[in-house]
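Hi there. Long-time user, first ticket. I'm pasting a complex I've been working with (about 640 residues overall). I'd like to know whether the download I got is complete or cut off, because the file seemed smaller than I expected. Thanks.
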Amino acid sequence: MDKPYVIGIDVGGTNTVIGIVDKRGQILRSGSIKTAVHAEVNDYLDDLSKLINEIVAETTTKDQIKGIGVGAPNGNYFSGSIEFAPNLRWKGIIPFARLLEEKVGIPVALTNDANAAAIGEMTYGAARGMKDFIVITLGTGVGSGIVVNGQLVYGHDGFAGELGHVIMRRNNGRLCGCGRTGCLETYASATGVARTAREYLELRPDMPSQLRSIPAETITSKDVFDAAMTGDEMAKEIFRFTGKILGEAFADFVAFSSPEAIILFGGLAKAGDLIMKPVQETMESNLLAIFKNKVKLLFSELKESDAAVLGASALGWEVK
Amino acid sequence: MDKPYVIGIDVGGTNTVIGIVDKRGQILRSGSIKTAVHAEVNDYLDDLSKLINEIVAETTTKDQIKGIGVGAPNGNYFSGSIEFAPNLRWKGIIPFARLLEEKVGIPVALTNDANAAAIGEMTYGAARGMKDFIVITLGTGVGSGIVVNGQLVYGHDGFAGELGHVIMRRNNGRLCGCGRTGCLETYASATGVARTAREYLELRPDMPSQLRSIPAETITSKDVFDAAMTGDEMAKEIFRFTGKILGEAFADFVAFSSPEAIILFGGLAKAGDLIMKPVQETMESNLLAIFKNKVKLLFSELKESDAAVLGASALGWEVK
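Hi, the file is complete. Here it is re-exported in full:
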């Protein structure tokens, strides 16, 4: 009666990717549909259930599936709803888990992308065997999944772990999409790196950089990474600045939950030592003495193309 | 076989207070010894065990005591040790729980003062029935006990919850006893309030205040409180400044663990609305939208003179 498979679903603004996953974290079969073409969530869920039924039929039978785990922007674990997600077309509160469960007849659990990443690292990745760690997702924004005593921290309302929105600069901080200023996300995300690049180009007119050959408004974090890899000093300085703010933030996070490790996940983590070295140096020099030289900084061990589906699938093992 | 009593021990730098407590949080009998007179921890523990034996004999028998809970500065729950406590005479790592348990023959659990306060609020006080909350202790320093999902957050090493040492001012921050600058504790503790008073007196020479009649170096937070209660504008402004920084910090704490409540405990909490109003206003205006109007700000419900012993005693119910 021990069901051997789960299904992971990563709901993105553009695409929705699904996969059938076994206990070792192998994706046996996967597929995807377009998210954004569906103006009505019901049409979307019809297409999604059809895809689920197809890939289940090609691999196994429904009674072998323990559960479906969904990672979605603004996903709330307690309610199973997607609530006011700015990057999705469906507005307001969508009872996603209940609607999908009704259509496919498999129990569904849902959480946000960063929490799914944390469960994924704990189940299949860099946090195996750990009971206290934090996953920081560095993508378009900055998200986080916090694990304390082996359990994900959801808080009393299911919305805990918004570490992209702690305030790192209380004066003259950058305007954030959340409406406030100085949030970590405005500095340490991919878009934050691009903003830093534009600031550097403007404020240091005498510093040479190959970034000057790119129209400022189109610069991406990838451009800065490519320049840094060829030795461009300004590009390297931009990563040092980014890593410094991230390291300052991490020192505060450690004072909160004293994790065994902080794990970097997502696009910017690909910058490797360019970002990790300044994060490590700044975190250590900012830590309270009792925490120094104790906290591991790690990169995600989930294969990037599979990470979102794997993370979501790990939640499938926890459905009741 | 359900043992009806626990013993709570509050180890302070000057005095150690103990009490026998029942399941409703009534202190049946209490006593105290001087902490600081004992240069050797073994002499201290001899005196402490003698006192324990006396008050147990006056009330009940040892087999009716479920456990002893100890709240001590720098107490580590995992190791049962007091580690490098700056305000105690015994240096290094003291295996306090094991030593005491050997002397009295009752199981002993130990944690730091702020964690003991959090367990006390959950067991007998303002957090009864809550699974996610934070206790902030506002005394000579600022401490914290964080509860997530009904469990105290100890972190991987037992030292989680050092929220007095998150950085609130990254430029020109006040020097902290921990060796760093800008820590919350340097602003929001009793000593922080006194520092703020000295700054105001110096930086606003034209502003009248009854605080000017006190020699600046001897001003305490109690002086500022007394002045504010008589309507002194500068004193009220000092509490607004203190509450504002505390409110900014709380908004970040909420982004971490999304607690149902934040509970103020300790000396400064006695300032009541003088501190709570600016905390509430600043926290709400700094919260991420999804957290607004959700987080309760409460005062401790433990009677002040008993709070430390009650908090420690609550840990006695948890011993194995």
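A couple of notes from our side: The first helix of chain B runs from residue 41 to 59. The longest strand of chain B covers residues 27-34.
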